[in-house]
Amino acid sequence: MRNAGKIMIAAVAAALSLGACANSEEPSPDAPGTGPTVSAPAPAGAPSSASQAPPSGSVTAQPEAQGKECTADDIKVTGDPGKKPEIAIPDTCKPPAKLLSKDLKQGTGAEAKAGSQLEMNYELVTWSDKAVKDNSYDRGEAFKLNLGGGDVIPGWDQGLVGIKQGARRLLIIPPDLGYKEKGAGGGQIKPNETLVFVVDAAKVG
Hints:
The protein is α+β, with helices and mostly antiparallel strands. It has a domain at about 70-205: Roll (Chitinase A, domain 3). Helices cover about 15% and strands about 25% of the residues. The protein is built from 2 helices and 8 strands; from the N terminus they run H-E-E-E-E-E-E-H-E-E. Strands 3, 4, 5, 6, 7 and 8 form a 6-stranded antiparallel beta sheet that branches. Strands 1-2 form a two-stranded antiparallel sheet. The longest helix has 23 residues, at about 1-25. The protein is globular and about 40 Å long.
């Protein structure tokens, strides 16, 4: 009986040890963000409690708000241009079906056009959960892109046309110009998500 008891204790200890090893090998949900690229990784600093990607073939619908579609004026942005902003999305209107842009601060110099080399600081908030998913301010490095080159989501290639150096612009990007039905970041950005960006034009070349 003593030997049987020792065998039972050893088996339980081995099972607990294996479980601990399995948990320690789970990949971290946080990976460095690299901006609004076509195939974005998990955004930097995203909360570990964010929802996982839905099963294949399913579509996550955003909660329906009552009333009309939101306009750019309905989105409240606070904070000084050039510094990390605060973005507030209301519950009283629906996400717009079309790309919306609004300059919150005017810039100077030449307007950005296809082929322009841009350096942009940005913050991204997703509409459905009103959570910050990525920003460049915490990394201390502006995101570089060739406008119109197809390296970023279409909402950026289209929405940044005309921006001038020093400007701050609000972009509200519908799913078809963002990450569409695929989402991004391993479930951090849901399928068919509306994206709200505030961008500061650090350089327009």
